[in-house]
Amino acid sequence: MRKIGQLKGVLALAAAALLLTGLAGFQDAAAYFTTYVSAGGSEIVRMGSQTELIEDVTNMTKHISILNTSQTNDCYVRVKIFHGSQLDVTCSDASGRGNLWHFSREDGYWYYEPMVGPGAATEILDAKIGGLPPDFDRDSFNVVVIQECTPVVYDEAGNPTADWNTVYSDYRETGGEGDFRE
To answer: 153 near 75, Cβ under 8 Å?
Structure first.
């Protein structure tokens, strides 16, 4: 009988400790649930930056420029050039203003250093196509240019920078400029 009484006392003490522990966290939990809410549905997300590739070929040189077609957002751009192994393609900054285009051996992209404002275009990057054998058909080859853009983001000091690791996924286009729905 005495053991049952001791057991009831231990159980009562454990229940009281559990109740006090629960009450101690209740105030924080109540504050959380009154401050934060969740929402459902969907909303238009404006990605902000859209660009268009501008290419022209003269004298076996592809002249490449990127136009920021956004109405309001600055962006950074980069391009990657693909070609067949029998072609020798050398690229150079044709701006005449210095080295605005920079090649990265790490990822194979050409990066345009300044940000590109709304409605503005990059200076030209020339891709000279050479090393062609004499019997090469100059009308049947491809030099493919892939271009990408990313919105301008700002670091802790307020300096503009590019974040090429940002991935936008799980979206579908809704028809307007830069309008996407999740």
So the answer is: no
Q: What Å distances lie between residue 50 and 71, 89, 103, 173, 177, CA to CA?
A: 9, 27, 22, 13, 8
pLDDT at residue 44, rounded to an integer: 46
Whole-number average pLDDT of the chain: 77
Angle of CA points 86, 90, 91, to nearest 5°: 140
Residue whose tokens read 């404002």: 117
Entry pTM: 0.64
Condensed to tens digits (0 to 9), the pLDDT of residues 12-46 reads 777 776 666 666 665 655 555 544 445 555 544 45
> What are the tokens at 78?
């980069």
Q: What is the DSSP letter of 42?
A: -
Q: Is 141 helix (H, G, I), strand (E, B) or coil?
A: coil
Specify the amino acid at residue 138: R
Q: Following DSSP, what letter does each residue of 51-94 receive, concatenated?
A: EEEEEEEETTEEEEEEEE--SS--EEEEEEEEE-TT-EEEEEE-
Instruction: Please count the residues of the chain.
Output: 182
